[in-house]
What we know:
By secondary structure, this protein is an alpha/beta fold. Helix content is 32%, strand content 17%. The protein has helices at 19-32, 70-85, 131-141, 163-184, 210-215, and strands at 37-44, 59-64, 89-96, 147-155, 193-197. Helix 3 (131-141) links the parallel strand 3 (89-96) and strand 4 (147-155). Helix 1 packs antiparallel against helix 4. The longest helix is centred in the last third of the chain and has 22 residues, at 163-184.
Amino acid sequence: PAEPVLPMLPAGQPKAPHDHLLAERIARWSRESIGGKVEVVDQSAGSWTASPDCSAPRLWLFLYGHYRTFYWTQPNLASMARGSSGGCFMTAAVLPLEVCVRNQTDPESCARGRAHAPLDWRLFARTMSDTPALLRAASTSALGRRMAHLVLRRSGELDAYPKGALIMPWHLLWALAEWAASVHGFRTAPNAVVLRTRPDAIYRAPFDLTRLSDYFA
């Protein structure tokens, strides 16, 4: 089935109970920020197929940060998620439109980070704003389409680090997860594990979630 995609201001009947709530949460950041604005460029609820052993995700992956090296790290993330949850996982990703932070002196190149060399985005993208297409490809090829996502164009204080650029996406990840669950018709279990991470993280082994989730059961 095709992935559900929702415009931020849909006309007519909402597609899911949380449609209006997600749109309002996003719009509120623009209304109440001082000199900041956020616009949704691309949105998807991903895909979910329930089974007797997995009616709702045991593990939620909350992914935030620039796309950067996710082209290479996505198989590692998917392997960790499957190994940690027995394949019972869902991903929520909120990413900026640009694949990396732009170099201020050369806007068509990536800025150098504190602990890494500049990234050559041309190795995996056609433009620096290819994040929507790249995320959809990652969802299909690595994550079994179990990834809901928002791709944002930000400006002003909502694009300023660390405060605006970090607080807003972590809030929207929860709103995105609620919306995806509503679209797919499941309720997240109170003892589901949420892992907040980045697109460029690498994992050496899966996690043992049993004791943690049992503690909150």
